[in-house]
C-alpha cells in the first residue's frame, strides 16, 4: 500500500467498559466511563421506540437516500433535501469531504489541538497537513486564513472544538469565511453545537446559503444520545452535496439509525434535559477542579480538559491510577497534551465519584 497509508496511527477511542473490567479485574457495573463525550442519559426513549418499530423490517435494505430522515432535517433546519448528506456518524462526513475535495499531494488545513479525525482524513487521501498553532488552546482563525497555501483545498474547523472545548464567536467565523478563496472548501464541524448556551447560538445555516464552499457538519452522537448508531449529517449547497453523494457508500446509514434519528431530532424535551444536565455537570466538575487547584480550559462542549501535572508522564500516570479505580477518562498525549486529561461530563453521581477518585490519586 501507499506510504502515506502506512504512516497513519489508527484512531484510538475511549477504552470500552468491558475491556477495563477484564484488564483490572473489576465488575462492569462498578465502572464509570467519562471518556468518549457520550450522553450520560443514554439514548432517548423516543428513539428506542422508533427502532423497535423498524426491527421487523431489517431483512430489507435501508432507504439509500434516507428520504424520511432528510425530510426531518429539512424541516428542522429549513433547507431543501438536496442540501443534506447523511453520514455514518459525522466522521463519515469529514472523510467524504477530504475525498471529495482533495487530491494526493494537495494540502488540508486545521488547528493544533483540533479533532484527531482531521489528521486521519488528511493522511487517508495522501494530502499534506498544514497545522496552525493554537491560540489559548483554540483555533487562531486569523493565522489560519494567512496559512492557506496555493494547494490548500480544505479547511477543518471545530466549534466547539474537541478535545479543548474552545468556542469561536460567530463574528470571527464569518470574518474567516470572507477571507477563504472559493476554491477552498470549509468544513465547520459543529458536533457539540447543541450544548451551546442560547446566547452563544449562531446561524451557520445562513452562512451555508451565502458561502458556496461551506459544509456544516452535525452529529446525533452527542446531545441526541445516539453515538452507538453512527449517524451524522452535512448541510451545504447542492453542488457540494452532489459530490459527496457520488462517493458515499450506497447504504451508509442503516434503517435503525434513520428511524432513531428522526425521533431524536424531534425530541426537544430530551435535548433540553441533556443540555441542562451538561451545564450542571460542568459547574460540578469545574468547582471540583478549582477546589483541587487544577487548571482547566473553559469548555463549551460536554467535556473538560484538565491539567493533572507538570511533567509529560502526568496524563498517562493519572489515567492509569483512575483506571485502577474503575474510572475511564481520556488521555490526550496523542494531541500533544501529555499533562492533561479530557473528562466527559457524566451524571451528578458519576462526576462526584470521578472527583473523589481524582483527589485520592493526586494525593498518592
Ligand atoms: N467532530 C468532533 C469535533 C468530535 O468530537 C466528534 C466525536 N468525537 C466527531 C466529529 C465525530 O463524531 P461522530 O462520528 O460520532 O458523529
From TrEMBL:
Any Pfam family hit: Aminotran_1_2
Classification via InterPro entries: Aminotrans_II_pyridoxalP_BS, Aminotransferase_I/II_large, HisP_aminotrans, HistidinolP_aminotransfase, PyrdxlP-dep_Trfase, PyrdxlP-dep_Trfase_major, PyrdxlP-dep_Trfase_small
EC number: 2.6.1.9
GO molecular function, one term: histidinol-phosphate transaminase activity
Catalytic reaction equation(s): L-histidinol phosphate + 2-oxoglutarate = 3-(imidazol-4-yl)-2-oxopropyl phosphate + L-glutamate
Pathways per UniProt: Amino-acid biosynthesis; L-histidine biosynthesis; L-histidine from 5-phospho-alpha-D-ribose 1-diphosphate: step 7/9
SUPFAM superfamilies named in the record: PLP-dependent transferases (SSF53383)
Statement: the UniProt record of this protein carries the keyword Metal-binding: no
Homology family: Belongs to the class-II pyridoxal-phosphate-dependent aminotransferase family. Histidinol-phosphate aminotransferase subfamily.
NCBIfam families in UniProt: hisC
Name of the protein in question: Histidinol-phosphate aminotransferase
Native organism: Keguizhuia sedimenti
Gene behind this protein: hisC
Amino acid at each position: 500500500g501507499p506510504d502515506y497509508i502506512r504512516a497513519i496511527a489508527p484512531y484510538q477511542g475511549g477504552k470500552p467498559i468491558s475491556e477495563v473490567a477484564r484488564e483490572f479485574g473489576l465488575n462492569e457495573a462498578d465502572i464509570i466511563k467519562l471518556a468518549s463525550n457520550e450522553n450520560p442519559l443514554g439514548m432517548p426513549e423516543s428513539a428506542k421506540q422508533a427502532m423497535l418499530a423498524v426491527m421487523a423490517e431489517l431483512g430489507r435494505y435501508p432507504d439509500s437516500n434516507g428520504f424520511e430522515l432528510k425530510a426531518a432535517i429539512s424541516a428542522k433546519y429549513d433547507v431543501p433535501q438536496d442540501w443534506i448528506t447523511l453520514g455514518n456518524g459525522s466522521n463519515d462526513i469529514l472523510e467524504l469531504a477530504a475525498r471529495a475535495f482533495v487530491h494526493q499531494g494537495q494540502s488540508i488545513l486545521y488547528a493544533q489541538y483540533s479533532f484527531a479525525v482531521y489528521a486521519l482524513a488528511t493522511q487517508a487521501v495522501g494530502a499534506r497537513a498544514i497545522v496552525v498553532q493554537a491560540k489559548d488552546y483554540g483555533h487562531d482563525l486569523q493565522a489560519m486564513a494567512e496559512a492557506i497555501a496555493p494547494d490548500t483545498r480544505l479547511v477543518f474547523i471545530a466549534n466547539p472544538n474537541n478535545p479543548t472545548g474552545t468556542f469561536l464567536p460567530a463574528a470571527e467565523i464569518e470574518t474567516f469565511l470572507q477571507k477563504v478563496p472559493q476554491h477552498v472548501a470549509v468544513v465547520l464541524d459543529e458536533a457539540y453545537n447543541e450544548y451551546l448556551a442560547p446566547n452563544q447560538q449562531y446561524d451557520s445555516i445562513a452562512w451555508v446559503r451565502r458561502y458556496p464552499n461551506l459544509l456544516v457538519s452535525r452529529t446525533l452522537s452527542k446531545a441526541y444520545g445516539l453515538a452507538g448508531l453512527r449517524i451524522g449529517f452535512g448541510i451545504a449547497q447542492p453542488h457540494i452535496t452532489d459530490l459527496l453523494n457520488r462517493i458515499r457508500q450506497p447504504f451508509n446509514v442503516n434503517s435503525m439509525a434513520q428511524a432513531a434519528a428522526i425521533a431524536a431530532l424531534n425530541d426537544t424535551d430530551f435535548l433540553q434535559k441533556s443540555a441542562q444536565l451538561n451545564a450542571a455537570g460542568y459547574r460540578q466538575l469545574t468547582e471540583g477542579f478549582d477546589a483541587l487547584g487544577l487548571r482547566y480550559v473553559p469548555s463549551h462542549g460536554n467535556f473538560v480538559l484538565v491539567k493533572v501535572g507538570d511533567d509529560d508522564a502526568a496524563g498517562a500516570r493519572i489515567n492509569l491510577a483512575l483506571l485502577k479505580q474503575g474510572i475511564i477518562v481520556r488521555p490526550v498525549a496523542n494531541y500533544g497534551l501529555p499533562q492533561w486529561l479530557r473528562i466527559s461530563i457524566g451524571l451528578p453521581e458519576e462526576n462526584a465519584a470521578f472527583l473523589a477518585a481524582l483527589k485520592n490519586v493526586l494525593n498518592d
